[in-house]
Write a structure and sequence with these properties.
- Helices cover 42% and strands 25% of the residues.
- It has 10 helices and 12 strands.
- The strands form 3 sheets. Strands 1, 5, 6, 7, 8, 11 and 12 form a 7-stranded mixed sheet that branches.
- A hairpin with a 3-residue loop joins β2 and β3 (58-60).
- α3 (71-82) packs antiparallel against α10.
- The longest helix is centred in the N-terminal third of the chain and has 25 residues, at 3-27.
- The radius of gyration is 26 Å and the shape is elongated.
- The N and C termini lie far apart (76 Å).
- 34% of the residues are buried.
Length: 269
């Protein structure tokens, strides 16, 4: 065989190899590009930390053995679909969830993480997908309380370790110590306290679960607690992409639809 023929044959083999590489690159482009662009743990897969025991945000259907569902679960699933990413949930206890994020065990936390100054110093946050003011809850036939000023001299049921205890006492209320929401509601319905102060989400979830409770919201705080997805500081590209997806989901009504399903109201803005 002449050197010319040999050279032509070699060029032909090289061209075929390049064509094959190009085809393989095109077929795997979606997952690899997504993973590489967002710095995901696994290319093409969003790995999400959540408790799995925090109803109605992240829990298992039925007796706890059913599928993982919830408000936060459905929202991050919708986000992943918008970004053309698979999703993998890592169920983690709350006490260990930020340590796991720091250790790189997952890409983000989806578990009603409230934005505050301390957390913002150490983590990145998406745009909020939950907005919940503080509320005064009273019996439906009680019109004596219509503002936080009206709590002066009244008795509210509060946990002494909660922020709502501080809000109630700063408003002039006397506080009956309780262990949580269920006990506070019980005392309120029995007429042993005049009101309880808590976040709006808790009340809406209670109404959605129990139906007509005989209670109502008497007043709301001007400021609201904001919850969002949490990320380590190196995930800005992922934050930006998720913010874009959340904006689309807000615009097309998906966020409101998921919210109505779990709370009977839109708590996403």
């Amino acid at each position: 065989m002449s050197r010319r023929v040999t050279a032509v044959a070699a060029l032909a083999v090289a061209a075929l190899a390049l064509t094959a590489c190009s085809a393989n690159s095109d077929s795997g482009d979606t997952g690899d590009a997504a993973g590489g662009q967002y710095g995901l743990m696994t290319d093409g897969t969003l790995t999400v930390a959540t408790e799995g025991t925090y109803r109605p945000f992240s829990f298992h259907e039925g007796d706890g053995a059913g599928a993982l569902v919830g408000f936060d679960v459905e929202i991050i699933e919708a986000v992943a679909e918008k970004l053309d990413l698979d999703i993998k949930f890592e169920e983690t206890q709350w006490d260990a969830i930020f340590a796991g994020l720091d250790a790189g065990r997952f890409d983000l936390i989806a578990n009603q993480v409230t934005i505050n100054d301390e957390r913002e110093a150490n983590y990145l946050f998406s745009e909020p997908y939950t907005v919940s003011p503080g509320v005064i809850v009273v019996n439906a036939d009680d019109d004596s309380i219509t503002s936080f000023d009206d709590l002066a001299g009244k008795t509210t049921a509060q946990s002494l370790t909660s922020n709502w205890y501080e809000l109630a006492t700063s408003s002039g209320a006397k506080v009956e110590n309780v262990e949580g929401w269920a006990q506070a509601v019980s005392l309120l319905k029995q007429g042993r306290v005049d009101a309880t102060v808590n976040d709006k989400l808790t009340f809406l979830d209670y109404e959605e679960t129990e139906g007509d409770t005989g209670l109502k919201i008497a007043a709301e705080t001007d400021e609201a607690g904001l919850s969002a997805f949490a990320f380590t500081k190196d995930k800005q590209d992922l934050v930006d992409a998720i913010d874009g997806a959340l904006a689309e989901l807000r615009e097309d009504g998906t966020l409101a639809e998921i919210s109505e399903k779990y709370f009977g109201a839109d708590v996403t803005e």
